[in-house]
């Protein structure tokens, strides 16, 4: 990409650099980091100083000083009438096929500011440590002497356990174990899509899914959603007009909004699957984090692929997910997986198998703690940022908040100077007037973070 827009660069800067020091130096270090990683490719044309200054809510002098410092270090070249470009031979460590600053994994690559509002992960449940510690030497011997260690589809006993958990007609051959839900989405994208295929997603949607589909060269279309889930009527119009290859939804718990799809929308969506030729991917990663009991299953279908995860409910460090689909679909995706990965850790899969015996207890524990944390966060927002608004989530570990008077991307840059890392809504494919705030941080951390954001707002006024 030759020209980097102001909006793109502002999003890429989120989570880069250091939170201390003069503004021009911090901006310079952030840009240098993007150049050195190859995310700003050689020859890329950067935004004009004035436009970038407005987007970042800093003075034009700050941007000029940062550009000049990067020119001195040999990373930028500036010519009157031609603008500011990354030098063709600028030092960088990786090449980039796209603007990596928007990637879902980017907040995990580097150190974060003192208060991280970017990551909406749940703390580990105590049962994870208990189950992991319960494995004995005999258990390990059982794994190592009865298995060669390579299972493309996953540990047979875990696949059987997940099939029983689903019940009905689900069989072990319908299950493919993956290293988390993100790998599951990558496999579905690689196995089902070709460059140019049309993919329909909700607006907004999970940013990791956007990454996975973008890497296949697919053309994305969006469908609006409300408190009951995606607009099924709007989806049907797109199905007729676009003939998409794949539709991606999150019916039991939506990231980032926390919406749970209504029973009526689920029935109507299922009927569309019977009437039109497309693959429906239902990401159920947040199913265990609903704040109230709900039945949100879409059932089974030859063209329905369900993605599940242990990481959201039990612990992010337990990188175990799965795909449920027709046996021929599972077999095809297992072949795709074998190109780069011969299977997930058998030890982790054995821990996951045992954790399924505690699944309902884990759901009950989350259902107790999440509403408490939600009340804490919303109380802090009402006290310190009363102009921010939201709808109560019904699932998940975050709050989707609407900002009243500026873009969320500008807010993310502003509050980073106060030691708070905030994700703009644009990275979720949404209008840039929203941000996502995690629930499950310690109350003192939530309070400090919200107070810093409020302080930043007062200072800018």
From TrEMBL:
<dbReference type="InterPro" id="IPR036388">
    <property type="entry name" value="WH-like_DNA-bd_sf"/>
</dbReference>
<dbReference type="InterPro" id="IPR015421">
    <property type="entry name" value="PyrdxlP-dep_Trfase_major"/>
</dbReference>
<keyword id="KW-0808">Transferase</keyword>
<dbReference type="InterPro" id="IPR036390">
    <property type="entry name" value="WH_DNA-bd_sf"/>
</dbReference>
<dbReference type="GO" id="GO:0030170">
    <property type="term" value="F:pyridoxal phosphate binding"/>
</dbReference>
<dbReference type="GO" id="GO:0008483">
    <property type="term" value="F:transaminase activity"/>
</dbReference>
<keyword id="KW-0238">DNA-binding</keyword>
<comment type="similarity">
    <text>In the C-terminal section; belongs to the class-I pyridoxal-phosphate-dependent aminotransferase family.</text>
</comment>
<dbReference type="InterPro" id="IPR051446">
    <property type="entry name" value="HTH_trans_reg/aminotransferase"/>
</dbReference>
<dbReference type="InterPro" id="IPR004839">
    <property type="entry name" value="Aminotransferase_I/II_large"/>
</dbReference>
<keyword id="KW-0805">Transcription regulation</keyword>
<feature type="domain" description="HTH gntR-type">
    <location>
        <begin position="21"/>
        <end position="89"/>
    </location>
</feature>
<keyword id="KW-0032">Aminotransferase</keyword>
<dbReference type="InterPro" id="IPR015424">
    <property type="entry name" value="PyrdxlP-dep_Trfase"/>
</dbReference>
<dbReference type="Pfam" id="PF00392">
    <property type="entry name" value="GntR"/>
</dbReference>
<dbReference type="InterPro" id="IPR000524">
    <property type="entry name" value="Tscrpt_reg_HTH_GntR"/>
</dbReference>
<dbReference type="GO" id="GO:0003677">
    <property type="term" value="F:DNA binding"/>
</dbReference>
<dbReference type="Pfam" id="PF00155">
    <property type="entry name" value="Aminotran_1_2"/>
</dbReference>
<dbReference type="InterPro" id="IPR015422">
    <property type="entry name" value="PyrdxlP-dep_Trfase_small"/>
</dbReference>
<dbReference type="GO" id="GO:0003700">
    <property type="term" value="F:DNA-binding transcription factor activity"/>
</dbReference>
<protein>
    <submittedName>
        <fullName>PLP-dependent aminotransferase family protein</fullName>
    </submittedName>
</protein>
<keyword id="KW-0804">Transcription</keyword>
<keyword id="KW-0663">Pyridoxal phosphate</keyword>
């Amino acid at each position: 990409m030759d020209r980097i827009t102001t909006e793109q660069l502002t999003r890429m800067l989120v989570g880069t650099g250091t939170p201390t020091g003069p503004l021009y130096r911090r901006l310079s270090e952030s840009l240098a980091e993007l150049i050195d990683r190859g995310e700003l490719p050689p020859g890329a044309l950067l935004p004009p100083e004035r436009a970038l200054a407005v987007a970042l809510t800093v003075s034009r002098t700050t941007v000029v000083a940062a550009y000049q410092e990067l020119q001195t270090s040999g990373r930028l070249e500036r010519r009157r009438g031609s603008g500011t470009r990354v030098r063709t031979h600028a030092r960088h460590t990786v090449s980039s096929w796209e603007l990596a600053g928007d990637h879902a994994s980017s907040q995990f690559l580097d150190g974060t500011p003192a208060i991280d509002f970017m990551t909406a992960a749940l703390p580990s449940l105590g049962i994870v440590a208990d189950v992991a510690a319960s494995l004995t030497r005999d258990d390990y011997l059982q794994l190592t002497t009865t298995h060669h260690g390579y299972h493309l589809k996953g540990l047979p006993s875990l696949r059987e356990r997940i099939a029983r958990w689903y019940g009905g007609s689900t069989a072990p051959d319908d299950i493919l174990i993956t290293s988390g839900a993100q790998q599951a989405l990558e496999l579905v994208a690689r196995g089902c899509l070709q460059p140019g295929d049309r993919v329909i997603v909700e607006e907004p949607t999970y940013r990791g899914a956007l990454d996975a589909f973008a890497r296949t060269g697919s053309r994305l279309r969006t469908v609006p959603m409300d408190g009951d889930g995606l607009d099924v009527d709007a989806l049907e119009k797109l199905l007729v007009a676009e003939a998409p290859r794949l539709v991606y939804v999150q019916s039991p718990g939506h990231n980032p909004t926390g919406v749970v799809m209504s029973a009526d929308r689920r029935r109507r969506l299922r009927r569309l699957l019977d009437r039109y030729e497309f693959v429906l991917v239902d990401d159920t990663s947040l199913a265990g984090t609903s704040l109230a009991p709900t039945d949100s299953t879409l059932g089974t279908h030859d063209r329905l692929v369900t993605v599940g995860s242990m990481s959201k409910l039990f612990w992010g460090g337990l990188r175990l997910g799965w795909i449920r689909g027709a046996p021929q679909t599972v077999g095809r995706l297992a072949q795709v997986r074998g190109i780069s990965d011969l299977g997930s850790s058998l030890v982790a899969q054995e821990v996951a198998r045992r954790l399924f015996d505690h699944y309902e207890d884990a759901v009950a524990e989350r259902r107790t703690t999440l509403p408490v944390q939600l009340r804490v966060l919303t109380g802090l927002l009402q006290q310190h940022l009363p102009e921010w608004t939201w709808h109560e989530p019904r699932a998940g570990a975050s709050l989707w908040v609407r900002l009243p008077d500026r873009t969320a991307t500008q807010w993310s840059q502003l509050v980073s100077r106060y030691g708070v890392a905030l994700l703009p809504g644009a990275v979720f494919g949404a209008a840039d007037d929203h941000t996502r705030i995690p629930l499950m941080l310690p109350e003192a951390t939530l309070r400090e973070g919200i107070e810093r954001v409020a302080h930043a707002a007062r200072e800018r006024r």
